[in-house]
Design goal:
Blueprint lengths: L2 H5 L5 E12 L9 E17 L5 E5 L4 E5 L8 H14 L8 E7 L9 H17 L5 H15 L7 H8 L4 E6 L5 E5 L4 E7 L7 H19 L20 H19 L4 H17 L6 H11 L4 E6 L7 E7 L3 H12 L4 E4 L7
Helix pairs in contact: 2-3, 2-4, 3-4, 3-5, 4-5, 6-7, 7-8, 9-10
Bound molecules: alpha-D-galactopyranose.
The site of alpha-D-galactopyranose has 10 residues, from helix 5.
Protein backbone atom coordinates (compact mmCIF):
# COMPACT_ATOMS: atom_id res chain seq x y z
CA UNK A 1 0.00 0.00 0.00
CA UNK A 2 1.25 3.48 -0.87
CA UNK A 3 1.51 6.59 1.32
CA UNK A 4 -1.73 7.88 -0.24
CA UNK A 5 -3.53 4.57 0.46
CA UNK A 6 -2.62 4.72 4.13
CA UNK A 7 -2.70 8.40 4.98
CA UNK A 8 -5.23 9.60 2.39
CA UNK A 9 -3.07 12.30 0.82
CA UNK A 10 0.28 12.73 -0.92
CA UNK A 11 3.60 12.96 1.00
CA UNK A 12 5.46 16.28 1.22
CA UNK A 13 8.87 14.73 0.56
CA UNK A 14 10.21 11.39 -0.64
CA UNK A 15 13.84 10.29 -0.29
CA UNK A 16 15.73 7.05 -0.67
CA UNK A 17 19.09 5.45 0.11
CA UNK A 18 20.73 2.16 -0.91
CA UNK A 19 22.03 -0.81 1.05
CA UNK A 20 25.73 -1.64 0.69
CA UNK A 21 27.99 -4.59 0.12
CA UNK A 22 31.48 -4.49 1.56
CA UNK A 23 34.19 -5.81 -0.78
CA UNK A 24 37.18 -5.58 1.57
CA UNK A 25 37.89 -4.13 5.00
CA UNK A 26 35.71 -6.13 7.40
CA UNK A 27 35.71 -5.32 11.12
CA UNK A 28 38.24 -2.57 10.48
CA UNK A 29 35.99 0.50 10.81
CA UNK A 30 35.77 0.47 14.62
CA UNK A 31 39.56 0.10 14.65
CA UNK A 32 39.95 3.42 12.78
CA UNK A 33 40.90 1.45 9.67
CA UNK A 34 40.09 1.29 5.96
CA UNK A 35 37.03 -0.07 4.13
CA UNK A 36 35.96 -0.59 0.54
CA UNK A 37 32.17 -0.94 0.18
CA UNK A 38 29.87 -0.30 -2.80
CA UNK A 39 26.16 0.55 -2.97
CA UNK A 40 23.77 -2.20 -4.09
CA UNK A 41 20.81 -1.66 -6.43
CA UNK A 42 18.27 -2.28 -3.66
CA UNK A 43 17.16 0.76 -1.70
CA UNK A 44 14.84 2.05 1.01
CA UNK A 45 12.40 4.85 0.29
CA UNK A 46 10.94 7.07 3.00
CA UNK A 47 7.95 9.34 2.32
CA UNK A 48 6.70 11.76 4.96
CA UNK A 49 4.34 14.58 5.69
CA UNK A 50 3.61 16.65 8.82
CA UNK A 51 0.34 15.69 10.55
CA UNK A 52 -1.89 17.35 13.11
CA UNK A 53 -2.50 14.15 15.09
CA UNK A 54 -0.10 14.80 17.96
CA UNK A 55 2.11 11.76 17.33
CA UNK A 56 4.46 10.18 14.81
CA UNK A 57 2.92 7.39 12.72
CA UNK A 58 5.39 5.10 10.94
CA UNK A 59 4.05 2.60 8.46
CA UNK A 60 6.43 -0.09 7.17
CA UNK A 61 4.87 -1.28 3.91
CA UNK A 62 6.98 -4.43 3.61
CA UNK A 63 6.39 -5.54 7.18
CA UNK A 64 2.73 -4.49 7.18
CA UNK A 65 3.42 -2.90 10.55
CA UNK A 66 2.46 0.45 12.02
CA UNK A 67 4.01 2.17 14.99
CA UNK A 68 2.84 5.30 16.85
CA UNK A 69 5.03 7.25 19.23
CA UNK A 70 5.70 10.67 20.73
CA UNK A 71 8.89 12.75 20.90
CA UNK A 72 10.02 11.25 24.21
CA UNK A 73 9.16 7.58 23.82
CA UNK A 74 11.45 5.09 22.14
CA UNK A 75 9.09 2.84 20.17
CA UNK A 76 9.15 -0.84 21.14
CA UNK A 77 9.04 -1.76 17.46
CA UNK A 78 12.65 -2.29 16.39
CA UNK A 79 12.00 -0.90 12.92
CA UNK A 80 10.39 2.34 14.14
CA UNK A 81 13.27 2.82 16.59
CA UNK A 82 15.57 3.66 13.67
CA UNK A 83 13.19 6.37 12.46
CA UNK A 84 12.78 7.65 16.01
CA UNK A 85 16.58 7.74 16.43
CA UNK A 86 16.91 9.91 13.31
CA UNK A 87 14.19 12.29 14.52
CA UNK A 88 15.95 12.60 17.87
CA UNK A 89 19.29 13.31 16.17
CA UNK A 90 17.67 16.16 14.24
CA UNK A 91 16.05 17.45 17.45
CA UNK A 92 19.50 17.37 19.08
CA UNK A 93 20.55 20.01 16.53
CA UNK A 94 18.01 22.33 18.17
CA UNK A 95 15.54 21.91 15.31
CA UNK A 96 11.84 21.49 16.01
CA UNK A 97 10.50 18.40 14.22
CA UNK A 98 6.73 18.38 13.63
CA UNK A 99 4.74 15.20 14.15
CA UNK A 100 4.86 13.20 10.95
CA UNK A 101 3.14 10.51 8.93
CA UNK A 102 5.96 8.29 7.65
CA UNK A 103 5.82 5.55 5.03
CA UNK A 104 8.75 3.20 4.47
CA UNK A 105 9.21 0.84 1.55
CA UNK A 106 12.37 -1.18 0.99
CA UNK A 107 13.78 -3.95 -1.15
CA UNK A 108 17.08 -4.09 0.76
CA UNK A 109 17.20 -7.64 2.15
CA UNK A 110 16.97 -7.48 5.94
CA UNK A 111 19.29 -9.19 8.40
CA UNK A 112 21.81 -10.48 5.83
CA UNK A 113 24.66 -7.99 6.23
CA UNK A 114 23.68 -5.56 3.47
CA UNK A 115 22.90 -2.66 5.83
CA UNK A 116 19.14 -2.38 5.59
CA UNK A 117 19.23 -0.35 8.81
CA UNK A 118 21.75 2.18 7.45
CA UNK A 119 19.61 2.54 4.30
CA UNK A 120 16.58 3.29 6.48
CA UNK A 121 18.49 5.81 8.61
CA UNK A 122 20.05 7.62 5.66
CA UNK A 123 16.76 7.72 3.71
CA UNK A 124 14.95 9.07 6.80
CA UNK A 125 17.58 11.75 7.39
CA UNK A 126 17.57 12.74 3.71
CA UNK A 127 13.78 13.15 3.87
CA UNK A 128 14.05 15.21 7.08
CA UNK A 129 16.82 17.34 5.52
CA UNK A 130 14.57 18.19 2.60
CA UNK A 131 11.43 18.74 4.68
CA UNK A 132 13.13 20.99 7.23
CA UNK A 133 15.75 22.58 4.90
CA UNK A 134 18.53 21.33 7.19
CA UNK A 135 22.03 22.55 6.41
CA UNK A 136 23.75 19.16 6.63
CA UNK A 137 25.93 17.45 4.02
CA UNK A 138 26.12 13.75 3.18
CA UNK A 139 28.95 13.08 5.65
CA UNK A 140 26.95 14.70 8.45
CA UNK A 141 23.96 12.56 7.45
CA UNK A 142 26.14 9.45 7.81
CA UNK A 143 27.41 10.61 11.23
CA UNK A 144 23.90 11.31 12.46
CA UNK A 145 22.70 7.95 11.12
CA UNK A 146 25.49 6.18 13.02
CA UNK A 147 24.52 8.09 16.17
CA UNK A 148 20.89 6.98 15.72
CA UNK A 149 22.02 3.36 15.41
CA UNK A 150 24.27 3.48 18.47
CA UNK A 151 22.01 5.47 20.79
CA UNK A 152 18.57 4.23 19.78
CA UNK A 153 19.02 0.81 18.14
CA UNK A 154 21.82 0.04 20.65
CA UNK A 155 24.29 -1.41 18.14
CA UNK A 156 27.79 -0.14 18.84
CA UNK A 157 28.68 -0.02 15.13
CA UNK A 158 31.42 1.74 13.17
CA UNK A 159 30.67 4.28 10.45
CA UNK A 160 31.18 2.19 7.30
CA UNK A 161 27.54 1.29 6.60
CA UNK A 162 26.14 4.78 6.97
CA UNK A 163 28.97 6.37 4.95
CA UNK A 164 28.44 3.78 2.20
CA UNK A 165 24.68 4.30 2.10
CA UNK A 166 25.15 8.08 2.05
CA UNK A 167 28.13 8.39 -0.33
CA UNK A 168 28.74 5.23 -2.38
CA UNK A 169 27.35 4.32 -5.79
CA UNK A 170 26.85 1.03 -7.59
CA UNK A 171 29.57 1.38 -10.18
CA UNK A 172 32.47 2.25 -7.87
CA UNK A 173 33.96 1.18 -4.58
CA UNK A 174 34.06 3.80 -1.86
CA UNK A 175 37.51 3.87 -0.26
CA UNK A 176 37.09 5.31 3.20
CA UNK A 177 39.61 6.04 5.92
CA UNK A 178 37.29 5.69 8.91
CA UNK A 179 39.53 7.80 11.15
CA UNK A 180 39.89 10.91 8.99
CA UNK A 181 36.79 10.25 6.82
CA UNK A 182 39.05 10.90 3.82
CA UNK A 183 37.34 9.11 0.97
CA UNK A 184 37.21 8.64 -2.76
CA UNK A 185 35.28 6.63 -5.28
CA UNK A 186 37.56 4.14 -7.03
CA UNK A 187 36.78 2.00 -10.09
CA UNK A 188 35.86 -1.66 -9.71
CA UNK A 189 38.56 -4.03 -10.96
CA UNK A 190 38.38 -4.00 -14.77
CA UNK A 191 36.33 -6.69 -16.52
CA UNK A 192 34.60 -7.79 -13.32
CA UNK A 193 31.18 -7.56 -11.69
CA UNK A 194 29.74 -8.34 -8.27
CA UNK A 195 27.66 -11.25 -7.11
CA UNK A 196 26.00 -11.36 -3.69
CA UNK A 197 24.51 -14.62 -2.42
CA UNK A 198 22.56 -15.02 0.80
CA UNK A 199 23.43 -18.10 2.84
CA UNK A 200 19.94 -18.14 4.35
CA UNK A 201 21.49 -18.41 7.83
CA UNK A 202 20.16 -15.90 10.32
CA UNK A 203 22.79 -13.87 12.14
CA UNK A 204 21.48 -14.54 15.61
CA UNK A 205 24.90 -14.49 17.28
CA UNK A 206 26.12 -11.43 15.46
CA UNK A 207 25.15 -8.68 17.91
CA UNK A 208 26.74 -10.15 21.04
CA UNK A 209 29.82 -11.41 19.18
CA UNK A 210 30.22 -8.01 17.53
CA UNK A 211 30.52 -6.28 20.88
CA UNK A 212 32.93 -8.95 22.16
CA UNK A 213 35.18 -8.58 19.11
CA UNK A 214 35.14 -4.83 19.50
CA UNK A 215 36.19 -5.11 23.14
CA UNK A 216 38.95 -7.60 22.20
CA UNK A 217 40.34 -5.17 19.62
CA UNK A 218 40.32 -2.32 22.13
CA UNK A 219 42.14 -4.50 24.65
CA UNK A 220 44.70 -5.48 22.00
CA UNK A 221 45.31 -1.82 21.11
CA UNK A 222 45.79 -1.00 24.81
CA UNK A 223 48.26 -3.86 25.23
CA UNK A 224 50.22 -2.58 22.22
CA UNK A 225 50.12 0.99 23.50
CA UNK A 226 48.45 2.42 20.36
CA UNK A 227 45.25 4.49 20.11
CA UNK A 228 43.67 1.93 17.75
CA UNK A 229 44.78 -1.18 15.84
CA UNK A 230 45.05 0.95 12.72
CA UNK A 231 48.18 2.42 14.28
CA UNK A 232 50.12 -0.86 14.40
CA UNK A 233 53.04 -0.26 12.08
CA UNK A 234 55.01 -3.45 12.61
CA UNK A 235 52.77 -6.55 12.17
CA UNK A 236 55.34 -8.60 14.12
CA UNK A 237 54.35 -6.77 17.30
CA UNK A 238 50.94 -8.43 17.42
CA UNK A 239 52.59 -11.88 17.59
CA UNK A 240 53.57 -11.16 21.18
CA UNK A 241 49.96 -10.64 22.33
CA UNK A 242 48.01 -13.23 24.32
CA UNK A 243 45.20 -15.17 22.61
CA UNK A 244 42.64 -14.31 21.40
CA UNK A 245 44.04 -10.80 21.06
CA UNK A 246 46.91 -11.95 18.88
CA UNK A 247 44.59 -13.38 16.22
CA UNK A 248 42.03 -10.57 16.45
CA UNK A 249 44.74 -7.95 15.95
CA UNK A 250 46.35 -9.97 13.19
CA UNK A 251 43.07 -9.94 11.26
CA UNK A 252 42.64 -6.18 11.58
CA UNK A 253 46.23 -5.40 10.64
CA UNK A 254 46.24 -7.77 7.65
CA UNK A 255 42.78 -6.63 6.51
CA UNK A 256 43.85 -2.98 6.48
CA UNK A 257 46.84 -3.98 4.39
CA UNK A 258 44.57 -5.83 1.93
CA UNK A 259 42.42 -2.72 1.43
CA UNK A 260 45.50 -0.57 0.78
CA UNK A 261 46.85 -3.16 -1.66
CA UNK A 262 43.52 -3.23 -3.54
CA UNK A 263 43.60 0.57 -3.73
CA UNK A 264 46.70 0.42 -5.88
CA UNK A 265 44.49 -0.61 -8.80
CA UNK A 266 45.13 -4.35 -8.92
CA UNK A 267 43.61 -6.60 -11.60
CA UNK A 268 40.48 -8.67 -10.94
CA UNK A 269 42.41 -11.85 -10.24
CA UNK A 270 44.59 -10.19 -7.59
CA UNK A 271 41.57 -8.47 -6.08
CA UNK A 272 39.82 -11.86 -5.93
CA UNK A 273 42.81 -13.34 -4.12
CA UNK A 274 42.64 -10.52 -1.56
CA UNK A 275 38.97 -11.39 -0.99
CA UNK A 276 39.84 -15.06 -0.51
CA UNK A 277 42.56 -14.11 1.97
CA UNK A 278 40.11 -11.84 3.77
CA UNK A 279 37.67 -14.71 4.21
CA UNK A 280 40.38 -17.00 5.58
CA UNK A 281 41.38 -14.31 8.05
CA UNK A 282 37.77 -13.69 9.14
CA UNK A 283 37.31 -17.44 9.57
CA UNK A 284 40.56 -18.37 11.31
CA UNK A 285 41.79 -15.23 13.08
CA UNK A 286 38.64 -13.20 13.67
CA UNK A 287 36.33 -16.24 14.05
CA UNK A 288 33.17 -14.63 12.71
CA UNK A 289 32.31 -17.25 10.10
CA UNK A 290 30.24 -20.41 10.50
CA UNK A 291 30.54 -23.72 8.59
CA UNK A 292 27.62 -23.03 6.22
CA UNK A 293 29.12 -19.69 5.20
CA UNK A 294 32.50 -21.36 4.65
CA UNK A 295 30.82 -23.93 2.43
CA UNK A 296 29.06 -21.25 0.37
CA UNK A 297 32.27 -19.23 0.04
CA UNK A 298 34.20 -22.36 -1.03
CA UNK A 299 31.58 -23.13 -3.71
CA UNK A 300 31.86 -19.56 -4.99
CA UNK A 301 35.66 -19.64 -4.94
CA UNK A 302 35.81 -22.84 -7.00
CA UNK A 303 33.40 -21.60 -9.71
CA UNK A 304 35.27 -20.86 -12.97
CA UNK A 305 33.57 -17.45 -13.36
CA UNK A 306 34.62 -16.28 -9.88
CA UNK A 307 37.88 -14.43 -9.11
CA UNK A 308 37.37 -14.52 -5.34
CA UNK A 309 34.73 -14.57 -2.58
CA UNK A 310 34.25 -13.87 1.09
CA UNK A 311 31.59 -13.34 3.72
CA UNK A 312 30.42 -9.72 3.83
CA UNK A 313 29.17 -7.68 6.79
CA UNK A 314 29.54 -8.62 10.43
CA UNK A 315 29.45 -12.41 9.82
CA UNK A 316 27.87 -15.38 11.67
CA UNK A 317 25.49 -15.87 8.74
CA UNK A 318 24.02 -13.59 6.11
CA UNK A 319 25.48 -12.89 2.70
CA UNK A 320 28.70 -13.59 0.77
CA UNK A 321 30.17 -11.40 -1.96
CA UNK A 322 32.06 -12.66 -5.01
CA UNK A 323 33.96 -10.89 -7.76
CA UNK A 324 33.04 -12.47 -11.10
CA UNK A 325 34.04 -12.14 -14.72
CA UNK A 326 31.89 -9.42 -16.28
CA UNK A 327 28.64 -10.81 -17.67
CA UNK A 328 28.96 -14.11 -15.79
CA UNK A 329 27.72 -13.27 -12.27
CA UNK A 330 24.10 -14.21 -12.85
CA UNK A 331 24.96 -17.65 -14.18
CA UNK A 332 27.60 -18.27 -11.53
CA UNK A 333 25.06 -17.34 -8.85
CA UNK A 334 22.47 -19.77 -10.22
CA UNK A 335 25.07 -22.57 -10.40
CA UNK A 336 26.31 -22.01 -6.86
CA UNK A 337 22.83 -21.73 -5.33
CA UNK A 338 21.89 -25.02 -7.02
CA UNK A 339 24.91 -26.73 -5.43
CA UNK A 340 24.48 -25.01 -2.06
CA UNK A 341 20.81 -25.86 -1.54
CA UNK A 342 17.43 -24.23 -1.24
CA UNK A 343 18.34 -21.85 1.56
CA UNK A 344 20.64 -19.87 -0.75
CA UNK A 345 19.45 -17.04 -2.98
CA UNK A 346 21.07 -14.61 -5.35
CA UNK A 347 20.67 -11.01 -4.15
CA UNK A 348 22.93 -9.11 -6.59
CA UNK A 349 22.61 -9.13 -9.57
CA UNK A 350 18.97 -8.92 -8.51
CA UNK A 351 17.51 -12.38 -9.13
CA UNK A 352 15.26 -12.29 -12.18
CA UNK A 353 15.61 -8.51 -12.52
CA UNK A 354 17.99 -5.98 -13.95
CA UNK A 355 21.13 -5.52 -11.89
C1 LIG B 1 28.49 -4.06 10.73
C2 LIG B 1 28.75 -2.69 11.33
C3 LIG B 1 29.87 -1.97 10.57
C4 LIG B 1 31.12 -2.86 10.45
C5 LIG B 1 30.74 -4.25 9.94
C6 LIG B 1 31.90 -5.22 9.96
O1 LIG B 1 27.98 -3.94 9.43
O2 LIG B 1 27.58 -1.90 11.29
O3 LIG B 1 30.17 -0.75 11.23
O4 LIG B 1 31.81 -2.92 11.65
O5 LIG B 1 29.69 -4.83 10.70
O6 LIG B 1 32.89 -4.83 9.07
Amino acid sequence: MSFEDIFGRAPTVVASAPGRVNLLGEHTDYNDGFVLPAAIPQKTTVALRPNQGGEFVVHAADLASESRFGRDTLPGDHFAAYVYGCIRCVMAMGVEVPHLDVHVRSDVPMGVGLSSSAALEVATLRALRELLSLDIDDVRIAQMAQRAEIDFAHVNCGIMDQMASSLADESHMLFLDTRTLERRLVPMPPGAELLVVDSGLSRSLAASAYNTRRAECEAAARALGVPALRDVEDPQRVEALDEPHRRRARHVVSENRRVLTALQGVDAETFGQLMNDSHASLRDDYEVSVPELDRLVALLQSHPSVHGARLTGAGFGGACVALCRAGEARRAGADVVRQYGERGRVLVPVAGGQA
